[in-house]
Amino acid sequence: MRALPEDWPLREHSRCVTAGGLRWHVQRLGRGPVALLVHGTGAATHTWRGLAPLLARHFTVVAPDLPAHGFTARPADDDLMTLPGMARGLGALLAELGDAPALAVGHSAGAAILVRMCLDGRIAPRGLVSLNGALLELRGLPRAVFSPLARLLAASPLFPRLFAWRAGDRAAVARLVASTGSKLDDAGVDQYARLVRDPVHVQGVLAMMARWDLGALERDLPDLAVPLLLVAGQRDGTVPPGESRRVQALLPAAELAELPGLGHLAHEEQPERVARRVTDFARRVGAVSGPRR
Length: 293
Description:
By secondary structure, the protein is an alpha/beta fold. 41% of the residues lie in helices and 16% in strands. The protein has helices at residues 51-55, 83-97, 109-119, 143-155, 158-166, 170-178, 186-196, 199-211, 215-220, 241-250, 266-269, 271-284; strands at residues 14-19, 22-30, 34-38, 60-64, 103-107, 127-131, 228-233, 255-259. Strands 1-2-4-3-5-6-7-8 form an 8-stranded mixed β-sheet, with helices on both faces.
């Protein structure tokens, strides 16, 4: 497990927990019912640096790094890098922490993990929030070619180091962030640059991408009984807002909130705006009560 930098966002709330045979990096802050925050592929807990303190006014926020991401260890069993495996791993972590989330918030692939956990009975929150969630196979992606290629690259000890070396060019990282449709400040871009300079993190991202399959989730999605809020940035260049409309077609009871002017990292661009949407939804579904703080 890599050492946590002294200047890592919200470091004072970080802890290490062993669960399911894996050493996890988890951040915990606030007081109240538990809100579980799960980041997406290639990110880490830094992505919640603006949103988590706002939600911590109402909740005990629990935010882990996914396996092989950020500062959570790479599992010996690569099955933990699959969607069902990630759901099992997070279930083991919650059991170790003794936490039962009243609210679950997932960004991008993190939303898919939370849906899988709900469907498998690993969590039973009062509400689930998908922030630009990648819940369905994106149309037009040649998965039959992409996944084997990602698996090959993940197995190579050279490619993650080569990619990390290339990521030393901060301008390249800034272009990658801009391609999501989001506009981050310099500090936000620097956090992603730090992550992609780490070969272990890059290898973990590739391993996750190589084993990701949303087919079963798409088939099971209509069985989701937990109230769902779909938050979609209208400028999202990674998961277009039309994908959230596709999900709503499968789950007509789901709420859809589109955010004009924001991209895939909407919760980093304007955390206050996203926090209002999340807390208002949480009140409606009974995940939290009381006045605004």
